[in-house]
């Protein structure tokens, strides 16, 4: 029903993009522009950090003021425009004004986003030049340039798209994203931008984004840090003519999930110093919230992440995290699997199976499963990467 | 009033100790015995992990059954006796029985403690031989051997003692400890054992231990992990004849604090891969609980810890943690100091002061200060160490 297609963020009809260099970063593309024609409905989810960057403030204002109607999204990398006080807000507003002028729409129909160094001022002249240059290169074939322009230390750009074929016709969902957490010294942000040519009500759009973000973007972690600039935006233009009613809503969620799942996992794969993608499935929990809390605690544990890096099936570390995660946990009935191999269950240790578990950990994608033993049936899967000496090197030595 | 003295855990009159090798670890001392003559009052605080190791279960039982009257504490390293099921409990009980026989007291007057590999069985025959050997070498001069016998990957043993001179006479407090958090692959535990020859009521003893543990042991972190075996025991023998009444209670707390503070900081200094002791002071909080929560979040942040390792004054990382710590925080009034140098305050960035801040970070002991800007007056100081590539190496490659 959902098929992967080429085209990234501009795969859905009605969207063009550009990625240009305007000198905010020392080298490389650093400004992306996404334009919706006609205007799209937009939904957004934002950082929960109390230190909110200026572009997050402005984008929220503009969504409210425009009734969530959006013509353009402009994003820069290399400078987060965070902790920059009132002058940072002025720059974020100027960024929207310049884009509105170039695109021909009211400023509140422009959403802005930034990623990069915290506390450094963002130069409005560079942004203005970048917007001008971007409007001149806008096209449906520029999706990869746009995905590259939002990168900071990401090892590769991240974009994907799908086509969903339904009884009422086909629609597309596309997206691009950049690095998870605060994965760079003084750099910030997980950003993701999503488009669709389906037509959907504002309420449905919000509901779908929240529903899909929970098991995708909200289920990943590189370092447990919540940045000042996190932002996920979803724009629905309607150009496919496919109207998402109650009957088609599950198709829409399926397509959106496919895109968000792929982008979220790509972010983790490209985490700083990462060599393995790690899924952590917690079962036997009293509630999904408790399962999520335990899975996230394991996914952020430096001892779990270093053990995976060392390809060492240290199941005791998972038990120890389960016991301190603040959720119901019954050690006498708990079970721990590394890949398909049960190493601990019902107070029994299967030490002879460790070689088989170690073999599983030699793969690029590994799976850890913990049953909390409460008798509950709720579960949650979190994704993380391993924790390498390279991570420390990147984060300790960046500015020296 | 409080003077540092030699003698470690046996500095207080009425205590003897021993540290012997009984073959649980591949090499080195691995069993410590502490004997109180006459019996001492005991108070304990224990891991909050729901996966509780067998020795923690047995020690709690024995404190309850004996009315907190204790003749001996026996501790092994090299095996945590955790996740070992009913047979692990049998071994922990046998450990107390053997010691009771050797010392000549009821089993419930013996407290037991273990540290080391999780999930591995503890050999009761080795423990029996170790206890026999330990009783033959017991002495007031064996405190360093005892401190060495409880080490796992600690780079050095940790012991200290003080004498408190009061109008009612002098008493002593001594102690020994081992590594913080789960600082070793499959190894567990922060352990601390404290003695005093002051005489104090059971209620006073508990109250003092809890009061002092909060700003000392409970204020440190190496990796944010709560082990299955954590235990702090305080034994008060009374041999000094100094009775701790309401008037002397502050003197007792002062002396106990001096010992616990030194041991707690020694644990952090010896954290895996650590090269720096880092104090993180959070001020301007609405409550001490909020200040503690924010300080601990910063102390556990891999981005803060790697920045300190790189001697890079990345104050933006501290702001970002403050914003996600789940406490009241006012970014427009917040201030961040690296050592004595204010780098950010009231939305102003002092970029020109970064070299001065970087110079402070080159020291072995560094200080980070964050004012949350809420207008509140509560504060808390947490201690941690830097996060080095060596940490990852130790934890990833230990068993390979």
Q: Notable features of this structure?
A:
400 residues, 28% strand, 33% helix, L-amino peptidase D-ALA esterase/amidase, nine-stranded mixed sheet, alpha+beta, six-stranded mixed sheet, homodimer, Ubiquitin-like (UB roll)
Overview of this protein structure:
The structure is a homodimer of 400-residue chains. With 400 residues, chain A is α+β, with helices and mostly antiparallel strands. Chain A is globular, with a radius of gyration of 22 Å. In chain A, strands 1, 2, 3, 4, 5, 6, 7, 8 and 9 form a 9-stranded mixed beta sheet that branches. A 6-stranded mixed beta sheet of chain A has the order 13-12-11-14-10-15. Chain A has helices at residues 54-65, 85-103, 124-137, 143-149, 202-213, 249-269, 288-300, 302-309, 315-324, 354-361, 389-397; strands spanning 2-4, 15-20, 31-46, 69-79, 110-117, 158-166, 169-178, 191-196, 231-236, 277-285, 335-338, 341-345, 348-349, 365-371, 378-385. Chain A folds into 2 domains: 2-269, L-amino peptidase D-ALA esterase/amidase, CATH 3.60.70; 277-397, ArgJ beta chain, C-terminal domain (Ubiquitin-like (UB roll)). The longest helix of chain A is centred in the middle third of the chain and has 21 residues, at 249-269. The interface between A and B is large, with 64 and 64 residues.
Topology readout:
Two copies of one chain form a homodimer.
Chain A: E1 2-4, E2 15-20, E3 31-46, H1 54-65, E4 69-79, H2 85-103, E5 110-117, H3 124-137, H4 143-149, E6 158-166, E7 169-178, E8 191-196, H5 202-213, E9 231-236, H6 249-269, E10 277-285, H7 288-300, H8 302-309, H9 315-324, E11 335-338, E12 341-345, E13 348-349, H10 354-361, E14 365-371, E15 378-385, H11 389-397
Parallel strand pairs in A: 4-5, 8-9, 10-14
Antiparallel strand pairs in A: 1-6, 2-3, 3-4, 3-9, 6-7, 7-8, 10-15, 11-12, 11-14, 12-13
Helix pairs in contact in A: 1-2, 2-3, 5-6
């Amino acid at each position: 029903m959902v098929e992967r297609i080429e085209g990234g963020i501009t795969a859905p009809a009605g969207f063009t993009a550009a990625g240009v260099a305007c000198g905010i970063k020392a080298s490389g593309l650093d400004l992306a522009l996404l334009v919706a024609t006609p205007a799209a409905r937009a939904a957004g989810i934002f950082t929960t950090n109390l230190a909110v960057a200026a572009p997050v403030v402005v984008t929220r204002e503009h969504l409210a003021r425009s009734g969530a109607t959006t013509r353009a999204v402009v994003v820069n990398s290399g400078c987060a425009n965070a902790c920059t006080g009132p002058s940072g807000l002025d720059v974020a507003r100027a960024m929207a004004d310049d884009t509105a002028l170039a695109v021909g729409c009211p400023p509140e129909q422009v959403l802005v986003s930034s990623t990069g160094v915290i506390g450094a001022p963002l130069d409005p002249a560079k942004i203005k030049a970048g917007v001008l240059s971007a409007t001149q290169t806008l096209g449906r074939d520029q999706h990869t340039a746009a995905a590259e322009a939002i990168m900071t230390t990401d090892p590769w750009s991240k974009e994907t798209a799908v086509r969903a074929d339904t009884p009422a016709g086909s629609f597309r969902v596309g997206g691009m994203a950049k690095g998870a957490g605060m994965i760079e010294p003084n750099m910030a942000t997980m950003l993701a931008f999503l488009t669709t040519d389906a037509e959907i009500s504002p309420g449905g759009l919000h509901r779908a984004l929240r529903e899909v973000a929970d098991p995708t973007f909200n289920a990943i972690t590189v370092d447990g840090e919540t940045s000042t600039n996190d932002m996920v935006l979803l724009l629905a233009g309607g150009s496919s003519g496919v109207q998402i009613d109650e009957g088609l809503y599950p198709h829409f969620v399926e397509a959106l999930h496919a895109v968000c799942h792929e982008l979220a996992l790509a972010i983790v794969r490209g985490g700083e110093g990462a060599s393995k993608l790690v899924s952590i499935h917690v079962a036997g929990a009293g509630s999904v919230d408790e399962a999520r809390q335990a899975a996230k605690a394991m996914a952020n544990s430096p001892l779990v992440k270093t053990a995976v890096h060392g390809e060492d099936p240290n199941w005791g570390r998972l038990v120890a995290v389960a016991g301190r995660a603040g959720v119901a946990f019954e050690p006498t009935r708990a079970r721990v699997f590394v890949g398909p191999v049960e190493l601990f269950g019902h107070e029994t240790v299967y030490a002879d199976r460790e070689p088989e578990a170690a073999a599983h950990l030699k793969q690029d994608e590994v799976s850890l499963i913990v049953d909390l033993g409460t008798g509950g049936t709720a579960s949650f899967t979190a994704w993380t990467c391993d924790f390498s000496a390279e991570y420390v090197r990147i984060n300790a030595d960046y500015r020296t």
